[in-house]
Automatic annotation (TrEMBL):
Residues 733-744 have a biased composition (Low complexity). Residues 551-744 are annotated as: Disordered. SUPFAM superfamilies: PH domain-like. This is Niban apoptosis regulator 2b. It comes from Scophthalmus maximus. InterPro entries: Niban-like, Niban_1/2/3_dom, PH-like_dom_sf, PH_domain. Belongs to the Niban family. Residues 26-150 form the PH domain.
Length: 744
């Protein structure tokens, strides 16, 4: 690390700006659905809140969240999989115990209350069972939950340029203590299963349930010990860090000279064997593996570019009609969090889901392509946010000195400038991703093949290292570096040839200019732009990225089994006067929801919870009295449908796709701000008995999400098109323009 700090790193400089705190004052999603509680054997209505940490906070109802009460529990999604059918779940459960198989069509210990389940499954930790009333809701929740999993799995910081983790282990999920816990469980669980399985008694579902409880309890113990020991190691390292760095900086030249001397000696022994292995077992497969990686990844990044481009085209079209800076700011508020909208990003994520590395599992011990899929998806999200943030900064700077007559031309110039920079950075990021992926596949295989013959010779090289430098120069590390550099030359050549062919829109490194736009990088030091404030509204303290789900027909109810008393009937209660964490037309958010995590209760328990901290209290309590507490608002018995998102002030104006584009804009902007008492997040602010019901007001499933646009920009946009789910769920439409814009 010290050498890297002193000498610096090479490589092309990013052309796009990078947002330092992407989700500042933002939450991801919140809403109600039904959860099966194993302790009471009942389905109960639950309110889930997803803050910027992507940990899922569970509450009895929305009123509990708004009052700042402690969540019932927090789910850390690292290592989980999101399932949308009980058949998928049964297949995984059937493998949990040897010689115990569940019959097809049977449920282990619960019956789903609807046709649209959502199950969070983990190989070691407890499972979570949810369900919703419609397929639209299921697809939106699926996208949100998969984004939580994707974010939690990406726990190892990319900022560290020294630590590198090679391999394709699919449980390399979460932060370091979680990964260590998974490693322990991988070896411990088979022993426990062999010991405990014969002693489990009762019916099939009882044995499965008891085994999962045992596994979860053991996993919690392992996590606690790993967390404690890991923190102790870190503290020891930090205590010695200052003196070590001082010694290294003082003797840097001698240490480097000594290391290079030992490296040359080890190369003489290792390189002949490594080159023979490369020629026979590695080189013939590099190009085919690279093609398998490049096709879906490049399609995904191309879709990121298209989604970003379409959003800007929509804004340009609407600016033609109402060419004011306020209109532009309203659209920019909607676009600013595009990268963190899992529904709109689904079409991008789905492209890379098709990545397949068939045939590599046995040859190179590739356990799963999921590690590459999720890494590519994280990079797509980062590139999208970099493009959006760069466009924001350039456009904001341009708007300060221009009149309204040149708005469209200004937007076009900024768009072309950012798209060009995106193409450069996309090429650089993808090439780095391809190189790292190939190393992750080949390095573990090569070390496994070379260690038996080379490992016995390594100790003698330790004698060549001065005792004072033995803490800094490790023979085992040098051996791995030699192996890495031996294959890196072939990998670099393969990626370079792919760039020359231009098959995947890759640029050669020589044409990517470094620091080609110094004035732009000065803008990168500017704070994020509050577009709501730009249009004269109050600054919003907390805004929700993904919009709430709305109910098309309030008469839809679930038919829960084993606990009807826990399900409030939707038509017995007034709809909540909530807006899903969105703001009202006046731009003021609910005072209770202004806090992403209430000051009274920490929103995020320790990162190692992995869902294990969820504790159900008062399971037998009746849900209706809770929801009628002291004049609080009542949760409807049905999770809202993934249709149009209306803020409190605009719910009485349902939008129709058939309306001319200008109508929603005029009616929306004419609405007065809603009173603060109506700005709770959740549902509509209009009684269903008096509100106009227009069945055709909601677009078909592909257009189920209006995103995180501001209330005033909603009218200009209408219904946003949803995109595809990150791991195979959520329909097949690409993100499109607002419905009214499309008609224009």
């Amino acid at each position: 690390k010290v050498r890297f700090d002193v000498e610096g790193g090479g490589g092309p400089q990013a052309q796009l700006l990078h947002r330092k705190i992407p989700l500042e004052n933002k939450s991801i999603f919140s809403g109600s659905l039904f959860q099966y509680l194993e302790e009471s054997k009942k389905w109960r209505n639950r309110f889930l809140f997803v803050p910027d940490s992507y940990n899922i906070n569970c509450y009895d109802n929305k009123a509990s969240h708004d009052r700042g009460l402690h969540p019932k529990g927090t789910i850390n999604c690292a290592g989980y999989k999101v399932l949308t059918s009980m058949e998928q779940y049964l297949d995984l459960i059937s493998n949990s115990l040897p010689d115990v198989k569940a019959k097809a069509g049977s449920s282990p210990f619960l019956k789903c209350a609807s046709q649209f389940p959502l199950v969070l499954w983990h190989p070691y930790a407890r499972h979570y069972y949810f369900c919703v009333a419609t397929e639209k809701e299921q697809q939106k929740w699926l996208a949100v939950l998969q984004d939580c999993v994707r974010h939690a799995n990406d726990g190892l910081s990319e900022e560290n340029k020294v630590q590198t983790h090679y391999g394709t282990w699919d449980m390399m999920c979460g932060v370091a203590p979680q990964i260590l816990s998974n490693l322990v469980m991988e070896g411990l669980l088979p022993e426990l299963r062999e010991l405990i399985s014969p002693r489990l008694k009762g019916k099939l579902h009882e044995r499965q349930r008891n085994w999962m409880l045992i596994s979860d309890a053991v996993y919690s113990l392992v996590q606690g010990q790993c967390q404690t020991q890991y923190e102790a190691v870190l503290q020891g390292c930090e205590a010695a860090r200052c003196s070590l760095e001082a010694s290294i900086r003082t003797d840097m030249d001698q240490i480097i000279t000594s290391k290079e001397h030992v490296t040359n000696k080890i190369k003489a022994v290792v390189l002949p064997k490594a080159e023979k292995l490369l020629k026979v077992s590695i080189q013939p497969y590099i190009s085919s593996i690279l093609d398998a990686l490049m096709e879906p990844t490049s399609r995904g990044f191309s879709e990121v570019r298209d989604v970003f481009f379409r959003e800007l085209v929509d804004m340009s079209k609407n600016t033609l009609n109402e060419g004011t800076k306020e209109t532009v700011a309203q659209h920019m508020e909607k676009i600013s969090m595009l990268a963190f909208h899992p529904v709109k990003m689904n079409s991008c994520y789905e492209k890379v889901e098709h990545l397949s590395l068939e045939g590599l599992q046995q040859r190179f011990d590739v356990s799963s392509p999921s590690v590459f899929v999720q890494r590519a998806q994280i990079l797509m999200r980062e590139q999208m946010d970099d493009a959006v943030y760069t466009f924001e900064q350039i456009l904001h700077q341009s708007l300060e000195s221009l009149g309204t007559d040149e708005l469209c031309k200004t937007i076009q110039r900024c768009q072309d400038r950012v798209i060009k920079k995106f193409d450069y950075d996309s090429s650089t990021v993808r090439k780095r991703f391809f190189r790292e992926a190939l190393l992750q596949i080949f390095i573990p295989y090569m070390l496994k093949q070379l260690s038996p013959s080379c490992g016995s010779e390594l100790p003698r090289f330790q004698e060549l290292i001065f005792e004072d430098f033995s803490r800094f120069i490790l023979v085992e590390n040098i051996f791995e570096e030699v192996v890495l550099h031996s294959v890196m030359k072939d990998i670099m050549m393969a990626v370079k040839e792919a760039a020359v062919q231009r098959r995947h829109n890759l640029y050669r490194d020589s044409i990517v200019l470094s620091n080609s736009d110094p004035s732009l990088h000065l803008l990168g030091e500017s704070p994020s732009i509050d577009w709501a404030k730009e249009v004269g509204g109050a600054t919003r303290r907390t805004k929700q990225v993904v919009s709430m789900i709305q109910v098309e027909d309030p008469s839809i109810t679930l038919d829960p089994l084993g606990g009807n008393d826990a399900i409030p009937e939707g038509d017995e209660e007034e709809p909540e006067k909530e807006g899903g964490g969105e703001e009202n037309v006046g731009g003021k958010a609910s005072p209770e929801l202004n806090e992403p995590a209430s000051p009274k209760a920490p929103a995020n328990p320790p990162a190692l919870s992995n869902g294990s901290v969820l504790k159900e209290e008062d399971e037998e309590e009746d849900a209706k009295p809770q929801e009628q507490d002291a004049g609080e608002e009542k949760d409807t018995g049905v999770v809202k449908d993934a249709g149009e998102v209306k803020d409190a002030g605009e719910d009485s104006q349902p939008m129709q796709d058939e309306q001319p584009p200008s109508k929603p804009e005029e009616s929306e902007e004419a609405l007065p701000p809603a009173p603060p008492s109506e700005i709770l997040s959740g549902a509509t602010g209009t009684d269903p008995e008096t509100a106009p019901r227009v069945p055709s007001a909601f677009p078909p499933p592909p257009h189920d999400d209006s995103g995180f646009q501001s209330p005033t920009s909603q009218g200009a946009g209408g219904a946003e098109a949803a995109a595809l789910v990150s791991s195979g769920g959520g329909g097949a439409a690409t993100t499109a323009a607002d419905s009214s814009t499309g008609e224009q």
